[in-house]
Write a structure and sequence with these properties.
The complex is a heterodimer of chains A (about 110) and B (about 425).
Chain A (H helix, E strand, L loop, with lengths): L1 E7 L4 H11 L5 E7 L6 E5 L2 E5 L2 E10 L1 H15 L7 E7 L17
Antiparallel strand pairs in A: 1-5, 1-6, 2-5, 3-4
Helix pairs in contact in A: 1-2
Chain B lengths: L2 H32 L7 H28 L22 H21 L9 H24 L5 H5 L7 H19 L15 H21 L10 H27 L4 H18 L5 H18 L2 H5 L7 H19 L6 H31 L7 H6 L1 H6 L22 H7 L6
Helix pairs in contact in B: 1-2, 1-3, 1-7, 2-3, 2-4, 3-4, 3-6, 4-6, 4-13, 6-12, 6-13, 7-8, 7-9, 8-9, 8-10, 9-10, 9-12, 10-12, 12-13
Classes of the chains: A alpha+beta (about 110), B mainly alpha (about 425).
Keywords (chain B): Ammonia transport, Membrane, Transmembrane, Transmembrane helix, Transport
Protein name (chain B): Ammonium transporter
GO cellular component, one term (chain B): plasma membrane
């Protein structure tokens, strides 16, 4: 199994979700995150004092998938999250040893 | 009821209602300032204003009113009305005046709290409020408002509702206190963004509303010829103009119309029209508002250049705005405008500024060297809310869950059983 981790722009979540559902993915986890890449942050002004805010809000989406689906699903996520502008985020995968469905105790791909 | 009695009854009702409106300004100020600080000391900022409602209300009836409005000396009142003795229930207009002026005495020291955000000991601040109103506010209020007695009153200085006695006084005092207490840890290095701008705007709105009581209420009378209505109108006009003035300056200089700028502009306009609004026409009020808005928008940048951490710009808004209104009315007054009146206005502004700065500096030094004014760096960095109030302003746990990972909230009943110290 693999864990796909995607850090995306918050407003792209619906597109990513729909694309994954269309592919048949059963579940995902979304966390609010903040960070920066090449985009860096933005500038805010308070009574003339300008602050550079490095960290911009992002969503971290995690999806557990079977090995065979991983490459294709990465493409699905990338396509759905892309706006073409700087700050679109990143997607990467990690190998996963074990997964257990808490309710039934099923293990491995059966737990997905 | 004779016409005189009817007018008296109307005046009492008017002044009592205005007093209640001015009371609301202090919590309004608490929200205005509270939203501008970082989360970790937000409650402390609210409390620095709120405590004044407690302390000064007591001092005012114990001896404050007497020191401000008793006797015939030009510099300070006396103790004839200590504990408000010899003032009885049938002196309705006088009692209403005492209550109305009480609210001014509560608000003025609270104004200074913004300059000292995030870094002073709460107990010392409470002591500072008590000392400051006693040796700075009560005498200065006497100078300006004790009719036919105070020396600035007799000089003919126009200060209808408190440009000198309230705003220049608090602004100069704030500067002195800042110089004693020093900068916040991380000033000019760490970002110190307002944590809740909607709260700032709400506070500004409460202040704006209450300010009608503050300004128009200072007329104290409602009969024909009362300046109350013109003052109310000019309060609105100048404040609107100052919002525009601040935002235009900001858009040109910094590229955005900020919410904080709109709220700050409103306060700058309210401050500037406070001394002047009963003596100018609405065209004069527009000019005063525009100048105050734009000038204060520039003045709030001085602290970065000069390196004093007037955290929430009490100097830039209240001192500068107060000076703008106090000086401009010398030229814009509908009667007696000119260099001579301008000279009187400048005298009033400078006298209050010098006295407040010098005496506040001494009080702050005295407190710093005895009980300590500045909070410990550890408390300041961790946040004053926990250090002095044993609370946090916001529960950041997931909405609706009621349990927080890693923290256990013990119900009061359980605690009483488990801990002998708790006196439940």
């Amino acid at each position: 199994m693999k864990l796909i981790v995607a850090v995306i722009k918050p407003h792209r979540l619906d597109e990513v979700k729909e694309a994954l559902q269309a592919f048949g993915v059963q579940g995902l986890t979304v966390t609010e995150a903040s960070g920066y890449g090449r985009q860096r942050g933005h500038t805010e002004v308070y009574r003339g004092a300008e602050y550079t805010v490095d960290l911009v809000p992002k969503l971290r989406v995690e999806i557990l998938v079977e090995d065979d689906d991983a490459d294709q699903l990465v493409e699905v996520v990338v396509k759905a999250a892309r706006t073409g502008k700087i700050g679109d985020g990143k997607v990467w995968t990690l190998p996963v040893d074990t997964a257990v469905r808490v309710r039934t105790g099923e293990r491995g791909p059966d737990a997905l | 009821m004779s016409p005189e009695e009817a007018l008296s009854a109307t005046n009492v009702a008017y002044v009592v209602i205005c007093a209640a409106m001015v009371m609301l300004m202090t919590p309004g100020l608490a929200f205005f300032y509270g939203g501008m600080v970082r989360v970790k000391s937000a409650l402390n900022m609210l409390m620095m204003s709120f405590i004044s409602l407690g302390i000064v209300s007591l001092l005012w009836v114990l001896y404050g009113y007497s020191l401000a409005f008793g006797g015939t000396s030009p510099v300070i009142g006396n103790l004839d009305f200590i504990g408000l003795r010899d003032i009885s229930v049938d002196q309705g207009e006088l009692v209403a005046f005492v209550a109305f002026q009480l609210m001014f005495a509560v608000l003025t020291p609270a104004l200074m709290s913004g300059a000292l955000a995030d870094r002073v000991k709460f107990g010392t601040w409470a002591l500072f409020v008590a000392l400051w109103v006693t040796v700075v506010y009560f005498p200065v209020a006497h100078w300006v408002w004790a009719a036919d007695e105070g020396w600035l009153f007799n000089q003919g200085v126009i200060d209808f509702a408190g440009g000198t006695a309230v705003h220049i006084n608090a602004g100069a005092g704030a500067l002195a206190a800042v110089l004693v207490v020093g900068k916040r840890v991380g000033f000019k290095r760490d970002p110190m963004r307002p944590h809740n701008l909607p709260m700032v705007l709400l506070g500004a709105a409460l202040l704006w509303f209450g300010w009608f009581g503050f300004n128009a209420g200072s007329a104290l009378t409602t009969g024909s010829g009362s300046p109350a209505a013109m003052m109310a109108l000019n309060t609105q006009v100048a404040t609107g103009a100052a919002v525009v003035g601040w935002l235009v300056y900001e858009r040109l200089r910094h590229g955005a119309f900020t919410t904080l700028g709109a709220a700050s502009g409103a306060i700058a306009g309210l401050v500037a029209i406070t001394p002047s609004g009963a003596n100018v026409n609405p065209m004069g009020a527009i000019l005063i508002g525009l100048v105050a808005g734009a000038l204060c928008a520039w003045a709030v940048s001085w602290k970065f250049k000069l390196g004093f951490d007037d955290s929430l710009d009490v100097v830039g808004v209240h001192l500068v705005g107060g000076v703008v209104g106090t000086l401009l009315v010398g030229f814009l007054a509908t009667e007696g405008a000119g260099l001579e009146q301008f000279g009187k206005q400048a005298l009033g502004a400078v006298a209050v500024m010098a006295y407040s700065f010098a005496v506040t500096y001494l009080i702050a030094q005295l407190l710093q060297r005895t009980v300590g004014f500045r909070a410990s760096e550890e408390d300041e960095t961790a946040g004053l809310d926990l250090a002095y109030h044993a609370e946090t302003g916001y529960d950041f746990s997931q909405a609706g869950s009621g349990t927080v990972a890693g923290s256990t909230v013990t119900a009061p009943a359980d605690r009483a059983a488990g801990q002998k110290k708790v006196d439940a």
